[in-house]
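Task: complex structure prediction.
Instruction: return structure tokens for all chains below.
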Amino acid sequence: MSNRAARNLFIFGSLFFFVIFLAFTYDTMGKLDQRAPEVTNEVNAGKMVWHKYDCIGCHTIFGTGSYFAPDMTKVSDRKPKGYLKQFIMDPRSVNPAAAMPKLGITSAEADNLLAFFDWIAKVDTNGWPPKPILAVAAGVGGRELTAGQRVYQSLGCSNCHAINGIGGTSGPDLTRVGSRRDRAWLFGHFKDPGEYVRNSAMPKVEAPDADIRQLTDYMITLK
Amino acid sequence: MSIKYQSQKIAQDFFTFAVVLFLVQVVVGLVASLQFLWPDFFFLKFNIVKTLHINALIVWLLCGLMGATYYVIPEESESELWSIPLAKLQFWATVVTITAVVLGYIWAGINPQANGTVLGTLTLNEGRKYIEAPRWADILIVISVLVFLFNCFMTVLKTKKWTGIQGVLLGGLTFLALMYLPGMVYMKSMVKDQFWWWWVVHLWVEGAWEIIAGALLAFMLMKVIGAPRHALEKWMYLEVGLVMFTGILGTGHHYYWIGTPQYWLWIGGIFSSLEPIPLLVMVWDAFRTTREARNVTNRAGLYYTVAHAIFNFVGAGLWGVIHTLPEVNKWTHGTQITTAHGHLAFYGAYVLLVMSMIYVTLPAIRGVKEFNPSRAFQSFWWMTISMVFIVLVTTGAGMVQTYMERLMGLDYVTVKATYNLWFWILRAIFGVGFLIGVGIFVVDYFRLGREPMPYVSPAPEKA
Ligand code: HEM
Ligand code: HEM
Ligand SMILES: [Fe+2]
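Output:
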């Protein structure tokens, strides 16, 4: 091949592939709106807050960003709003060991962020993040779950709490909670955490008393 | 070795600025790595420290490439630059803009409320990775790059002497400038925001910058070993052609999970898997030309050039391809595997590229016949061994993270704080090793040609 031919191959080949790329881009732009809810003013304001505090400098969103802090794509599916708002505004009031700094976010800004997270969670991401394939029931290896453990699972307590190393870290570790708290405290705390712990970020447990009792029984066994 | 045209001296200004920023970049990188152990360790938070780390990186690489171009253009078109004062002005304008941007990041880091909105854009930090620079700075940077390109094109137009190397170099730089623009449009949808953001990030490092690397590789091989231009340019066209044929549609490997249609899984998967091919051709090209090299005066230049070709392939090609298929990327996306790849790719492809251009051109700029390359070799091994271990350590951390968090479903923070703790400690230790290497390089940069040679071997000078 002559140098001239090689040069032409480079130039025209590149243009060729760029045109194809542009065509796909055009097609994609037309499809994006059906794959996500409408961007309201609140969502957009929340996005601006996200940029203003440079959240991407620590977090990923859609898996893109920095790897210092958890991904935010499905955060509003995992955690209740009240908790998230308190955490965003003052992380260490929720979890004294939090690495996230208090950034000075206002209440209005936090509300917009939550709207933004809701929007993000509803985007069709082709199934990302994938469900863990090896996820095992918290604390059980092939054993039958007790009634209390089943309630614990169905209420999503492990999003915030860990037992034996499995589960979230934003609430206290419950591996030995039974040796710290008694039945009455646990039951009362489940009905209204704020009554027992000032500024508690734990949501009230919305379940029938029978379930809460079983949950309490389970907690007492954790020693 | 000496320069033929006085205007080539301007390259040195850019190199010096680049070298200083390189030092800053690695110091703050080390701080960032310590914040994985102690989040409150520094007066700035992790996000700002990391912003400084990657912005310093991008800016010093760009300054290095601009300096390199100011050296190559007069040589290739056999004339002085169109305007030396304009180049000087452009240099100082760049320095001032960058300094202002950095001060802005620090200010916004100390007081986030200072990062207010004017005309719908944030004034100090745009909060978008790599392109955090606010809009006013974007505009100044674009003007600076346009002035730079104008000066180069006018030089070539003046002499009407187009060479392949120079054409591809300027083509790559023009593409680079154009691909900065999609990052400057505000998108209300985060999906569209990330879509265009990847145009900048991906089409830079896997498009424009690789084109520039291809042209500079050919230039360096020609300078250091006197390889014939004809064959070099043909292979260069082939390499940069393949970069574009695979890399443009390869952008799809970033459109798997951000809310874009499913067909990108196919496009991205297929084309990005082919991206290592041109990088392998570059390695082969480097070996092909250097095999017959005898009596090389600039051994440091040769060493760095070949190392650049090899590590470009390993860091970008191999460490890129391992996580580029959708079925793998689904699990590794946004983990420490990405960090590992990012580091080895940038180090191999562009840090070593700019450093080799410095070692190839600086002796001529400073008018030294021959220089002692021992410090250059020392810094190379300190940096390269440390970087390889930083990358192996973060790859390990990424594998543990992928398994524990993504496959088993453990919490992100648990994995980071317990299972990965030792990886963070090791990364910081190897970071110190890397900093030592950079220190040696900085000393070498400022001393090269300015101290008496202990022993000058009577090597014949190459034409
Ligand atoms: C010199 C060339 C390259 C450089 C400098 C480079 C650099 C990077 C960087 C810095 C990131 C992280 C971006 C972020 O901050 O989110 C990244 C991501 C990625 N790169 Fe590269 N890269 C190069 C070439 C390649 C090649 C040739 C491939 C594939 C064959 C590749 C595959 C990927 C993939 C799949 C990701 C996404 C990782 C994820 O899903 O989190 N890269 N690259
Ligand atoms: C020339 C050498 C280096 C280059 C080219 C480089 C490049 C980069 C790039 C492109 C990123 C952004 C992508 C990412 O987040 O992974 C980054 C982040 C980072 N770098 Fe470096 N870096 C270098 C040296 C270092 C050193 C010596 C350290 C310290 C040990 C370091 C520590 C970090 C840390 C902690 C992050 C943040 C990663 C995260 O978000 O989890 N870097 N670096
Ligand atoms: Fe890419």
